[in-house]
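Data availability (excerpt). The following record was deposited with the supplementary files.
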Amino acid sequence: DELKSALGDHTPADEQKARVMAKNAVELAKQSSRLVEAADLLEEAVNTWPELRKEYEYRLRLWRRGLTM
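Predicted structure:
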């Protein structure tokens, strides 16, 4: 995939970093006043490790609408 080559291959370190970011985003989202920040962090995590999108896409969409689970 050309885009992936241009951005470099994803590494296990990227996955670990992304999972920590996602976990931190979930913790942030527990405070409704920080939901936008949580959504931004989760988006960054998904961009770091795209496989996380399947796991977190629904939650991210809710957060972007100002809703929590």
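Summary of structural features: The helical segments are 2-7, 12-28, 35-48, 52-64.
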